[in-house]
Amino acid sequence: MNFPKRRNIKEDLRQKLVIVGSKNPVKISCTEAAFHQAFEGSFLVEGLNISSGVSEQPYGDEETYLGAFNRAKNAKVVFPEADYWVGIEGGVDLVEGEMHAFAWVVVIDKEGKVGKAKTSTFFLPKAIVELVESGMELGEADDKVFQRTNSKQENGAVGILTNGALDRKEYYQQAVVLALIPFLQRELYAN
Fold it and tell me: Which intervals hold domain Non-canonical purine NTP phosphatase/PRRC1 (predicted)?
């Protein structure tokens, strides 16, 4: 007969430290909300300025995923005492000539297990696409088109374009929860 593993009560009660590979308050806030939504227990979530190692505006799935992975991996190198490390990277890509935006999320735990997920996507208006194609980062393009300042640390393109029906925190939070599935279902995602 297989009995469940005995849980270490002290370990369960200890506050877990989560490091986000960014100082962006939206990325920190969505990560904190997602961990509290997915797990019981107490989490302290902190952000660090970590390089993504990719372009300022990642293009395509591969580069955007690599940016998220690098943020999580490099956060672990910088602060190895944490319990989890999270990388979130927004990117753009073309589908039939139209540009859409999305983000990748990567979560790494102490054992090296990796969880990953991608947000839903949404298409960008021509005015923003032209600026991004000219070399401008999406957040800068949003600010220019919508006369905002630092919108990527607030509602971002998704919040602006949905008139606030979906803000950047909610948009990223769902993907962070999805990236936590391998940690919620450890037996099913054993190496």
Answer: 21-184
Residue with tokens 């790494």: 108
Q: What are the strands, taking DSSP E only, across the chain?
A: 16-20, 43-47, 84-95, 98-109, 114-118, 122-123
Which single residue is written with the structure tokens 């006369």? 147
34 is in an annotated binding site: no
Structure token digits, residue 129: 């696409």
| pLDDT tens, residue by residue, 65-109 | 999 999 999 999 999 999 999 999 999 999 999 999 999 999 999
> What is the pLDDT at residue 155?
75
Which pTM value belongs to this model? 0.89
Instruction: Tell whether 81 is in a known binding site.
Output: yes
**Distance from C-alpha of 102 to C-alpha of 118, rounded to nearest angstrom:** 7
For 152-178, give one letter per residue: b (16+ CB within 10 A) or e.
Answer: bebbbbbbbbeeeebbbbebbbbbbbb
Residue 4: Cβ-neighbour burial (10 angstroms; 0-12, 13-18, 19+): exposed
Measured in whole angstroms, the distance separating CA 189 from the mean position of its chain's CA atoms is 20
Instruction: Sketch out the chain's domains with CATH numbers.
Output: 13-184 (3.90.950.10)
